[in-house]
Amino acid sequence: MFRWIDRFLPSDRTYIVPNVAGLAFGVLFFSLLFIGAAINRPLVQLIGFMIAIPYLSTMVQSNANVKDLKIRVPDDSLEMAGVAVEVRVLIEQTGKDQSRRISIRARLPGTAYGQTIERIIPGETVEIRIPVGSYLRGVHTLPEIELTSGFPLGLFHTWKRFRNIGQVWIHPAPSGDLPRPKSGITPEDSALEYREHRPVSPGDSPSRIDWKRFARDGNRLLKVYDADPGTRVTLRWDEVRHLSLEPALAQMTRWMFDSVRLGVDAAVEAPFSNGPLTPHSIHSHLKAMAEYRGNG
Question: What is the DSSP string of 149-172?
């Protein structure tokens, strides 16, 4: 309703206007004051002032609902190309008043208020996920985020919007049919003994877990094999350079995902990133891939 107004207003400020019910309430208040003065009836004026008290109190509360809210987006927002992106948003109440019935959305054409937060107490930070659409590979500025509230009574529309809240890194979707290099240490094709254990990390292959150890003491630990440097798989850019840029990046992404999923001892050698490939380092490789412009 108010989009034609707030497109010209600065961001990170709180705005409040009466809605239809609020306008009707205000007209009633001023009418009673005017009529009471015109006919010299103090009782009518008193009724008008009594109506004004909850009206003004509602306006103050509606403004306090939103004015001290701050939002931020974590720096590690990494998503896949071509899929619906949901960005983590942290909403913090920095003031002394609690916030009630806060609606939040990304300001995109046709986007409805998808989420409502019932209450945020002073000092509390609430984490939610907001759909912001899908993107092509690259680094993209996130759309404006809008907070709005009509609490209490629904007489006023209060809103606050935030620009330049952060960026999202979009890595290629894994695809391609080139075979993954076969050398490397996997539990299926290696006869080498493992030298130590380490805690299980997200993305580790279940087949590399020491299940005998788990049955014995309940600890889920991963076998680390005693591999020499010659057994490491190197995912080289030279092997996909003959493809056009996006298919080449998609093929590298598939190799990286497969290597981590299978627990292969692997490394990346490419113009966008170099180094070992592990469940932890794949994040930095994918982020560098999102930034890559194909000039290497």
Answer: E-TTTT-EEEEEEE----EEEEEP
Contact (CB, 8 A) for 51 and 25: yes
Residue range 197-208: mean pLDDT, rounded: 69
pLDDT tens by residue, 174-186: 999 998 776 544 4
Residue 230 DSSP code: G
pTM: 0.67
DSSP conformational letter for 137: S
Q: Which two tokens stand for residue 242?
A: 């003959």
CA 110 → CA 167, 231, 261, 280, 295, distances in Å?
21, 53, 38, 37, 37
Nearest to 59 by CA among 98, 90, 22: 22
How far apart, in whole angstroms, are the C-alpha atoms of residue 116 and residue 214?
Answer: 43
Cα–Cα distance measured from residue 269 to residue 282, given in angstroms and rounded to the nearest whole number: 13
**Confidence at residue 189, expressed as pLDDT on a 0 to 100 scale:** 45
| Nearest alpha-carbon partner for 107 in 73, 70, 144, 140 | 144
CA-to-CA distance for 72 and 268, rounded, in angstroms? 32
What SS3 state is found at 176? coil
Domain boundaries, the chain: 1-171, 194-291
Task: Inform me whether the pLDDT recorded for 105 exceeds 60.
Answer: yes
Q: Which of 148, 120, 119, 115 is nearest to 131 (CA)?
A: 115
Sheet harboring 125-133: ordered strands across? 69-72, 85-93, 125-133
Q: Cis omega (within 30 of 0) on the bond before 152?
A: yes
> What gap in Å lies between CA 152 and CA 149, rounded to an integer?
9
